């Protein structure tokens, strides 16, 4: 049964080229005889508007459209991509993919004739309250210009940037088994930054360290406070500039949801990707300290830690009905009650590990000219039961840390050091003065086992990043993270030296 359609922007047509009006029939015309074949077509439209120091930078709009053909013949699999969407162009791509399938033969990591294949047809899109196409470009520019002006709260603000980027992606997958999957994503990425300087020091504050990407239309700007935040960001930049340097020492910390985005992304998400664990990523982005035998047995943290892949969260950037290999998406636990249950891997990686039941719909590609690989999707920490007041109130001497400013983690995803924009001391259960140049360091499993409390739903924020890079050749994708504030005991915190 197809998945339900949850509304999309009716004023924007999905792939409308005449030659691909019936992708199933098209695939039948290009498929090499005696093979299994799939066709994944992707159309992406990106628009960007930026105002820096009250000057409008050249607006940009780009469109990218192409297709990837996958052919399985015997035990081998081959792929080929093309931007020539004519019948002849796709026919030739299918023959190139077939040649690769024959060349690989029995040399593949598995017998691809037994590889999982899409079984369910369906359509998926998300709700849009205010369609992008319903607002003029001049209205968007005026809003961005106003936000940039609002960042100027003091003469010591030396640079102000406000921007809005929108990415619409339409994907159609068809197979020779008569499966057809259509999906549409509209993503909006608001960005605000104020840089302050007094001639001796420079400090920057943003609206979340580029973690404000969400699904939707113009209403995303309202959800993230795009019109109201500039003055707060500008004022916080000045406060941070004038603040003392963060003290160094071992102390308890409450980490806010924006910084938890980066923390989970780097020390849980990438560490659990199955292709890393299998060694496929070692040349580019490293491996992982996690071993195959750790799946189902490693104590990652206390029982209050629950981490999931959840494609159902409204507005989160990687909510979806299917992944790019056609696997239906569903909410799946990764770490349950502190115990590592499974890694982040699609159907192919799960088959390689002989753990087919552990497959998650996370096999994703950044474009039509890249094959899907294991990626994070909506990787979330489930909320707990502690209010923000309770998280802070139980700290006698510690620190609040939020909004990432820098990150460093080793190739095995074990040792890390992160810096934050937003840091305030905590004394006797109360937030006190702001400090600057704050950072913290630890190692992954000891860090997560120092987790002492998880914030409730009121602290839980839906966030997303547009720039997660991985793979050779490189693939840059969106990743969703919904995070609560969390409290950690005995964290090594430090400030700038010199």
Helicity, in percent? 10-25%
* Biggest sheet layout: 9 strands, mixed
Q: How far is the N terminus from the C terminus?
A: 64 Å
Radius of gyration: 24 Å
Q: Low-confidence segments, ≥5 residues, pLDDT <50?
A: 1-19
Please give a structural write-up.
The longest helix is centred in the first third of the chain and has 18 residues, at 87-104. α3 packs parallel to α5. The relative contact order is 0.14. It is globular, with a radius of gyration of 24 Å. It has helices spanning 23-30, 87-104, 137-150, 219-223, 229-242, 257-272, 274-277, 347-352, 388-393, 444-449, and strands at 36-52, 55-56, 60-73, 76-82, 122-124, 157-175, 180-197, 202-206, 214-215, 249-255, 307-309, 332-336, 339-340, 363-364, 373-374, 379-381, 397-409, 415-427, 430-435, 438-443, 451-454, 461-470, 475-483, 486-494. The chain is α+β, with helices and mostly antiparallel strands. It contains ten helices and 24 strands.
Can you give keywords for this protein?
alpha+beta; 498 residues; single chain; 10 helices; nine-stranded mixed β-sheet
Short description:
This protein has helices at about 25-30, 85-105, 135-150, 220-225, 230-240, 255-270, 275, 345-350, 390-395, 445-450; strands at about 35-50, 55, 60-75, 75-80, 120-125, 155-175, 180-195, 200-205, 215, 250-255, 305-310, 330-335, 340, 365, 375, 380, 395-410, 415-425, 430-435, 440-445, 450-455, 460-470, 475-485, 485-495.
């Amino acid at each position: 049964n197809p998945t339900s359609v949850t509304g999309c922007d009716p004023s924007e047509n999905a792939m409308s080229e005449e030659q691909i009006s019936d992708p199933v029939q098209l695939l039948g015309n290009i498929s090499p005889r005696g093979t299994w074949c799939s066709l994944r077509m992707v159309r992406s439209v990106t628009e960007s508007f930026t105002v820096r120091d009250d000057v409008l930078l050249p607006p940009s709009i780009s469109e990218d459209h192409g297709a990837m053909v996958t052919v399985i013949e015997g035990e081998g699999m081959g792929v080929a991509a093309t931007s020539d969407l004519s019948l002849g162009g796709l026919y030739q791509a299918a023959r190139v993919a077939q040649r690769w399938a024959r060349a690989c033969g029995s040399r593949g990591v598995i017998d691809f004739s037994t590889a999982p294949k899409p079984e369910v047809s369906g359509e998926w899109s998300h709700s849009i309250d205010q369609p992008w196409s319903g607002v003029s470009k001049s209205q968007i520019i005026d809003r961005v210009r106003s936000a940039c002006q609002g960042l100027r709260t003091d003469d010591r603000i030396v640079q102000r940037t406000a921007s809005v980027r929108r990415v619409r992606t339409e994907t159609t997958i068809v197979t020779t088994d008569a499966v057809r999957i259509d999906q549409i994503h509209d993503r909006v990425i608001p960005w605000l930054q104020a840089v302050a300087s007094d001639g001796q020091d420079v400090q920057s504050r943003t609206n979340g360290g580029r973690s404000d990407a969400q699904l939707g239309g113009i209403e995303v700007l309202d959800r993230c406070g795009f019109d109201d935040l500039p003055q707060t960001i500008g004022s916080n930049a000045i406060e941070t500039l004038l603040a003392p340097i963060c003290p160094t020492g071992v102390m308890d910390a409450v980490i806010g949801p924006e910084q938890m985005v980066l923390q989970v992304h780097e020390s849980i998400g990438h560490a659990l990707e199955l292709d890393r664990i299998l060694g496929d990523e070692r040349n580019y982005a490293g491996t992982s300290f996690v071993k195959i035998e750790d799946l189902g047995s490693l104590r990652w943290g206390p029982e209050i830690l629950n981490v999931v892949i959840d494609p159902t969260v409204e507005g989160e950037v990687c909510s979806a009905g299917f992944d790019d290999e056609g696997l239906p998406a569903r909410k799946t636990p990764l770490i349950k009650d502190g115990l590592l249950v499974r890694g982040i891997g699609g159907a192919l990686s799960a088959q390689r590990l002989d753990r087919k039941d552990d497959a998650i719909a996370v096999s994703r590609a950044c474009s039509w000219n890249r094959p899907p690989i294991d990626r994070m999707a909506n990787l979330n920490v489930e909320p707990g039961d502690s209010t923000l007041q309770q998280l802070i109130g139980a700290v006698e001497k510690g620190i609040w840390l939020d909004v990432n400013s820098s990150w460093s983690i080793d190739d095995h995803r074990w040792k890390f050091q992160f810096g934050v924009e937003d840091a305030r001391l905590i004394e006797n259960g109360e937030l006190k003065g702001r400090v600057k140049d704050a950072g913290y360091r630890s190692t992954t499993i000891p860090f997560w086992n120092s987790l002492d409390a998880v914030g409730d739903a009121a602290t839980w924020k839906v966030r997303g990043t547009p720039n997660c890079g991985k793979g050779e050749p490189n693939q840059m994708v969106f990743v969703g993270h919904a995070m609560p504030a969390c409290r950690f005991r005995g964290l090594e915190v430090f400030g700038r030296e010199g």
